[in-house]
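Sharing a chain and its predicted structure for anyone who wants a worked example. Both blocks are below, sequence first, tokens second.
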Amino acid sequence: MTALPIHADVIERHNAGRRTALRDDYDALGARLARDNIDIGAILAQVTEFTVALPSWGVGTGGTRFARFPGGGEPKGINQKLADCAVVQQLGRATPTVSLHIPWDKAPPAALKAEAAALGLGFDAMNSNTFQDHPGSPEHPLSYKHGSLSHRDPAVRAQAVAHNIDCIRIGEALGAKALTVWIGDGSNFPGQSHFARAFERYLESMQAIYAALPDDWRLFSEHKMYEPAFYSTVVQDWGSSLIAAQALGPKAQCLVDLGHHAPNVNIEMIVSRLAGVGKLGGFHFNDSKYGDDDLDAGSIDPFRLFLVFNELVDLEQSRPGFSPAHMIDQSHNVTDPIESLIRSADEIRRAYAQAMLVDRAALRACQDDDDALMASETLKRAFRTDVGPILAQARLMDGGAIEPVAAYRASRYRAKVAAERPAATGGGGGIT
């Protein structure tokens, strides 16, 4: 049995001096919610059940096109990544599964599954990687410089398809139930690519991948407006993603990354539209200011995150069986990745809890009366509510830390792994 990264005594000492204050805050919030006929215990139970997957790559330091500044104790392989993910789960108790990226995380599945289980982790959706080359890999001898699933060369497309099918097979052995496909295919110059033919080739490749799916799996099509191609992208918006999902079949759905949109796009309406046609597969949670910035979830626009969850909770309450996948997908350039992931998972749960406080009968009445101001106020009333005591109580009841970032710092885990793991060197970006 692998020992958990943070000793239980560290968490218990952290919680000991905070339990009384939390109980007082939780009881006070419960009394306040009771005046609105809301049972705080019911909200707590739902929050405890709500979880979000961690990205294996998220525990490392990210970077930009210009440079990367690695932090101390960066994980060097999937085993160390799992240990870091286990810290996030131990303290925050909202992230029991990890989403792997192949071939970055390729390892013998049986051993990987056993190690994850010993750390209290399972596996979420698999992620393929045909947006970069893999030098030295016998499975990727051909370059993806000019595309992958939509490449003009059938040999490159076949290589990319085979890689995705390999991801499915690895995922089956690990207990995963979905494959997320994002490609960087596109063009930088007008005329460089024939839009229609490129999309047709993409659909043909995706059909081959879809045919390899187990019966109980889903295939998520992820779109991105730009980057690495800046003139056109093969799957550049939710409309293209929807076309693909509809063409492929019932197991194909759309994945919505909160950063993959033009500024000011109404993401919560996209959520409603995709759900309305049964094609909302799940989310990659992050935040952005200018574009696909991959900032911590809720760090820039927590109200937008709440509005997304307002739609999700409405769907959850009105459509039995509605169950989209949830995963964090961020790049941590100036923070400790573990701290950012703990906080992001907490912010995602916060938005979920706030959305459950919306008085939906009152909101419907305002909408039916065309009362725009009070409809908005109904949402704002829920958003303004500090649900922190509910989140902390959920962590405490599940064996986590009342204040997980503070407990993490007290554990000195980062200093420990920095001393044990070889230091990473800085990396240059793509611009010189």
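Comments welcome. Residues 189 and 324 are 36 Å apart (CA to CA).
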